Known about the structure:
By secondary structure, the protein is an alpha/beta fold. It contains 14 helices and 17 strands. Helix 3 packs parallel to helix 11. The structure holds pyridoxal-5'-phosphate (PLP). Pyridoxal-5'-phosphate binds next to helix 4. Its cofactor is pyridoxal 5'-phosphate.
Amino acid sequence: MGASPAEGPTVTHVFHRQLNTTYPRAVAAQGVTITDADGRTYIDASGGAAVSCLGHGHPDVLAAMHRQIDRMAYAHTSFFTTDVAEELADELVARAPAGMGRAYFVSGGSEAVEAALKMARQYFVEIGQPQRRHFIARRQSYHGNTLGALAVGGNEWRRRQFAPLLIDVTHVSPCYEYRDRRADETPEQYGARLVRELSEAIDRLGGENVIAFVAETVVGATAGALVPVPGYLKGVRELCDRHGILLILDEVMCGMGRTGTLYACEQEGVVPDLVTIAKGLGGGYQPIGAVLAQQRLVEAFERGSGLFQHGHTYIGHPVACAAALAVQRVIQRDGLLEAVRRQGAGLRERLQAAFGAHPHVGDIRGRGLFQALELVRERTSKAPFDPQWKLHARIKREAMAQGLMVYPMGGTIDGQQGDHVLLAPPFIVGDADLDAIVERLSRAVDNALASLPA
Ligand code: PLP
């Protein structure tokens, strides 16, 4: 038998992702903080994994969930629809990019991506183009850990050992201005070069054989808040249209207000055919994700087989829908998109002041309350640290010791791990919280750097 929680765990029977690690035991959470069993508090400056957009313990969300549980916890979607799923779909469709007519609910981001990939493929079967069987996606991207999502994902480190199991996907360059824009290029010229590269990839496959191009509007978990250069996604949209290829934007991390507009693609002036959302949709109160689909795709299904050949047990779970509906209504009622823009600018200013001249911070980037640092051994050459040193993981450890949660990542730079820190605090974050976040992060970064081998 394992030790009782009160004595503290000697053996854990939970199969944690990271083995041989001792985690603090989270016991309570309120607002922007989480408290552990030893009474230590942590500022949740990453919203978990860019999830907790309203912070913790929001009374309106809890009340909505309680009401729904009391009424009905579960009804399977092959028998029923529910008021709460219908209301959530109405709310999402009303505020979605133009033409999005339906919301398909799932339980998280990877499921949303899987569903979008299958929806895209089935759409072409429905309209008599079954020869379309290729996806194109980008390096330095993360779309989830299930096999389809992993296949479109472009993080070599995550894919490597599963590569034999993955569908064959063509990967093109990410839009990574800090590393890849040439000194003699404007951002627009760089974006146009990336669109040409995509065009060449499409031509090699044959435009009539490609199902979709898949991209995160703002890249999150592999490279830290990579923002597209002006015009790039518009160029991608035009190219896709020319070949009848669908554009799937993955806004699981950057969507639902995180960048200051409900959908990050609004700021690019681009409307996708399918958009995936999760994380901030339910704000962590319940596991929920969704795919929003253009009405013309839905109509093709209606005219065709009348069945999307897919499904999961917990689709449209009433309590999850109630939580998400409450989260989304609070965001609108309390003007939190405006708060994201205002506090995001405040966070960026503080990061600039603390790290703008730091010898090992090569780039500070992001949008809204989705900001990142990229750490480098040397600023001029942008050379990364030795990946074996795992600087990003050291920063996470040091930050936790300071009572701060940040999202560290080792992206892939020239086939090597790079070091990024992503900040995605709740939309309710206050000025004093931002001061504390950046002060603690500064100490954590400096302590982590001081711990590196000489
Ligand atoms: N897509 C993006 C852009 C993500 O950032 C993530 C998770 O970080 C996913 C998909 C997968 O979501 P989940 O972890 O909920 O399966």
